Amino acid sequence: METLRTLPQPVPDDVVTSIGLEEGVGAFPSTAPYRISTQAWKGALALLLAGGTLTACGRLGAGARYRGPFGRYEAAHLLRRAAARGNAAEADNLASMGLEHAVDALLDSPEIPEEHDPDYFEGEGSPDYRNAWVNQWLQTRTPAAERLTLFWHGHFVTEAGKTGWWNTYHKINKLRELSLSSFRDLLYMIAEDPAMLIYLDNNDSTKEHPNENWARELMELFTLGEGHYTEKDIQEVARAFTGWSVSWEDDHHYFAFYAEDHDFGPKTVLGRSVHNTHNPLFEGYEVLDILLENPQTYLFISEKLLKFYFHPDPDPRMVQVGADVLKGGTVRDFLKWLFMHPEFYADEARNALVKSPMEYAVGMLYAAGKREAPEGLSWWLRARLDQDPYNPPDVSGWPSGADWLPDALLLQRLKFIDFATRTTDGEPPPTGPVDYSVFMDGAANPLSLVAPEAQLL
Amino acid sequence: MNRRNFIKRSLFTVAATGLVPSLFSRTALAAGGNGKILVLYHLFGGNDAVNTLIPYAQSEYASFRPDIAIPSANVITLDSSLGLHPALQPMMDNLWNNGQLALISQVGYPNHNRSHFVSTAIWNTGDPDRPNKTGWLGPYIDEQNDPFCATNFGSTLPRALRGVHTAGLSIESISGFGLGGSNWEGQLQTELLRQIQQGRHGTAEEVRKAMEHMLRSVERVREMGNVNVTPDLFPNTSYGRRFADIARMIKGDFPSQVYYASSGGFDTHSDQGGATGNQANLLGQLAAALSAFRQEMITQGRWNDVVVMVFSEFGRRVQQNASGGTDHGKGGVMFVTGGAVQGGVYGGVPALAEDQLDDGDLPVKVDFRSVYAAGAQFIGANPAELVGAEHTPLDLF
């Protein structure tokens, strides 16, 4: 059982290139290592075939590629969007690599932190779960994986308040590990995740009383989006997942299937028959496969990713091409396509997104030279900036755009400047030139942090 | 141009130049409406109507809910067919017994949506067909053209208070609303005033406008911090603090005619409890805070000028589930109270027999927009404009 809750260590690069992906490491598929030399041409061919009927050769197509200058200015935009954290030296380093190598470097396999047992976080003076994530984001060599993990955590939402802290911590760790993998890997993992099974009450769903919470959110929020299924589909999906639950052993929850709670009758989901009396557990996987074959799933995820990484109102043609890239490949393929896209570097895309409080806090602390969460940060995030990273407001995740900027929150964001930029001995920051160039456009000194651009990505 | 329009216009002229407007008169703005106040309180998650307004006399009640039905002996009986949850005793004593509590039974809208978010959006837009981006109060707020005409307590402004051009104010609480006084924060404020004078475009311009809005709000709200309400009256709960702040702003003549607040915890898929437990705790806190609010309004001489509407995005399934909870349903229950409200049950006694239910849920007998229409009329707004002429105001006053 130990392997079920222990995250595999990152595979050293030399092992990856010599033996390729090792199957069956840990409780879920590992992230496929990214190897340009052997994979890229296949991916490019797949994308060309997938997008060929659309606009592969057009300005918005799968093959569209930014060919303009790539200096500090462009690299700062890329780094801000990808990682929400950085400084001028890092932007210069990316610029010197050239666009494609810079994107590959940012999308390197996530650095995986050591996973601690619950007792590490419990008791007086123990580390705080929220600060642990902020510290990871401040210290990792793969900060883009942290922003992407925040995206997935805001998509496949669980709240620590309901699941227990460690379960959501473990889920976030698994999301980080799979963050750049295929959407299929992510969905399969989350369906079996104890935090999710508890959060959406599937652990209490029985053939006598199917609980529809997971079934509804699986389709409304995780795959298809509202309006692409019927109430009847929800009831049928709930029946297919009856018996998917958790067990409790060695102070941890594990995924468990209880056949005695499963509804063995035939189901129809989105017009497709789901019935497996031989192995009833697989009815759940069959439902996931139906959702994963549905093009609407990729349109929904593509639009959401583009709103998080590109523009609050992405062009439907971008959404369509992004959906094709995602369906035929991985999240890494999707982000690489986007980060090399000419539209990504257009003026309209720059500073078009509002930072969430986590991104705002991490970005400002990093730019201010902090590499560890200051005392009180956890409270600031939860109580004042209104983004407790372990407790999203509800199952639909966090708001975006100007919804982050009602008066009360905007005021707290401005008050946070004082907290984040003070020197460790409590003095106000020096007023001379500082390096906030990746945190925001147009920073001249710490006072510039009140400018609107500081709120933007 | 009348005086009120002139003041509004000068406010926006001032704002456009980036200065903090402090010269417009509060009383002039407050005098714009009819002096009546509408308080909207959202119980987020879907409050279980069947255990709130209880059809205790029907045999199905106990048989559908073996673990969570409230024993008849504990139900506060209203008549031979309906009763209230025992945690609502303060509402019974202070509101119902004074004939000032209207209970809107089986309330909702056609073709009910069981998603929290879609259903909340529908309640906030008043548009079940396709949730608008603007709120049902949006036209009113646009017409007032004043961000202070509606105030939300919370971090995120609900869609109900969003108009096309103007949005309501959103604050966590009166205390602690403002930039601090240190020398360094003073420098930041000076730089902020300089920065927001420069117009931007796109999202940056949205942020700049949000900063202007915030600065205006800070000044107005901070004045309310000096207003005192009856000491030790309000319970020290989130409900109590919210209602105390609303009472403070009413006493301080804050120019809002609409207040909005919400509290969560009602999504009781598991461990809902019966006479005691999770739902009972929440209802008890609400009842105590509402009773204190009534008392304070009477002290201020304003109880007849106020109407409070408590709603939830849907009710819950009549049959309990295996987790000692209930799943999302349709028909819900609203509380409406105020000195001018005619107490009683509106919308009839829910029938729990299987063939009377709508796919296992309470059916919808009262459209929530007819309740909103009554609230709109109360504050002098045009109900037809806000919720459509087909929704005639429920006769609550």
From TrEMBL, chain A:
Pfam families: DUF1800. This is DUF1800 domain-containing protein. It comes from Oceanithermus profundus.
UniProtKB/TrEMBL annotation, chain B:
Keywords: Signal. PROSITE patterns: TAT (PS51318). It comes from Oceanithermus profundus. This is DUF1501 domain-containing protein. Pfam families: DUF1501 (PF07394). PANTHER family: BLL7424 PROTEIN, DUF1501 DOMAIN-CONTAINING PROTEIN. Residues 1-30 form the signal peptide.
